[in-house]
């Protein structure tokens, strides 16, 4: 007589065999790290908190961090850290109506939509002229701060600084002159501050050539640029001082104005003391 007793037959699921939809957490993690397409396997995505997604699974977070660092470094290089708090209508430092926050905001929205659609912005350049101390630089920084938050790679540089950095061994961070050009030509949005701001006479051939090259390269690539300047576009009877065209030439100004909107900022000098100082 045999002492062996046949074991009862048990259905597969009761023996611990899981169906694809019931894969364990451990196996789910292994499959994802191996590059498996969970949707094709019929496994629902269990991640409920996107903030806990690791960088290699979602590059949006590290890209946003890198975008912010690049913007802040350009602001540090300009020694304008105090402008990082400016926003259009929120935050500790808001623009007033004279600084055209709605105009700048509408332009920024058009840039965001163009980037999403992969098209060239309809208005490529924003020119922000105004008197000294009128608040145009603060408005430009608010534009940059908002653009970075909106997902646009943005850099800031003064016109005179860019020209200096384009000379051999003059740029910070051990950058070569060609790296300076590449950096400011390829960023998605460039804020070029004080266009012709330190030029009180006709520009040198070097300054004219480098400025035309920068603006032409950005326009040809369809990359938007915001310019601030204390100067008028041209010399007139009412404004006999030099204009941008007198310094850099008609060709450059025509190229710049071909797809541009002007947001003139008017108002008193915000940096002027309330009472005149007695020297």
Describe this structure in words.
The strands form two sheets. A five-stranded parallel sheet has the order 4-5-6-3-7, with helices on both faces. Strands 1-2 form a two-stranded parallel sheet. By secondary structure, it is of the alpha/beta class. The N and C termini lie far apart (123 Å).
Low-confidence stretches: 46-57
Largest sheet: 5 strands, parallel
**Helix content percent band:** 25-40%
What is the mean predicted local confidence, pLDDT? 81
| Structural class determined from secondary elements | alpha/beta
Number of H- or I-type helical stretches: 10
Order of helix and strand elements from N to C terminus: HHHEEHEHEHHEHEHHE
Report Rg. 28 Å
Form type: globular
Number of beta strands: 7
Distance between the amino and carboxyl termini: 123 Å
| Share of residues in strands | 5-15%
Strand order of the largest sheet: 4-5-6-3-7
């Amino acid at each position: 007589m045999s002492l062996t007793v046949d074991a009862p037959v048990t259905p597969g699921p009761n023996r611990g065999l899981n169906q694809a939809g019931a894969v364990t957490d451990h196996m789910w993690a292994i499959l994802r790290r191996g590059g498996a397409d969970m949707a094709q396997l019929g496994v629902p995505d269990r991640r409920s908190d996107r903030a806990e997604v690791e960088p290699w699974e979602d590059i949006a977070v590290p890209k946003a961090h890198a975008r912010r660092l690049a913007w802040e470094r350009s602001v540090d290089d300009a020694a304008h850290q105090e402008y990082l708090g400016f926003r259009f209508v929120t935050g500790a430092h808001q623009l007033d109506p004279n600084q055209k926050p709605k105009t700048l905001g509408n332009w920024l929205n058009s840039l965001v939509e163009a980037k999403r659609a992969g098209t060239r912005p309809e208005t490529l350049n924003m020119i922000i002229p105004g008197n000294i101390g009128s608040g145009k630089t603060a408005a430009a920084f608010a534009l940059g701060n908002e653009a970075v938050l909106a997902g646009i790679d943005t850099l800031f540089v003064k016109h005179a600084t860019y020209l200096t950095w384009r000379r051999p061994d003059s740029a910070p961070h051990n950058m070569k002159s060609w790296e300076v050009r590449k950096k400011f030509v390829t960023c998605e949005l460039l804020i070029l501050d004080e266009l012709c701001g330190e030029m009180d006479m006709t520009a040198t051939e070097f300054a004219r050539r480098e400025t035309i090259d920068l603006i032409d390269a950005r326009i040809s690539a369809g990359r938007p640029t915001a310019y601030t300047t204390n100067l008028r576009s041209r010399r007139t009877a009412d404004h006999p001082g030099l204009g941008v065209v007198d310094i850099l030439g008609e060709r450059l100004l025509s190229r710049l104005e071909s797809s541009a909107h002007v947001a003139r900022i008017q108002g008193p000098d915000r940096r002027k003391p309330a009472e005149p100082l007695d020297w």
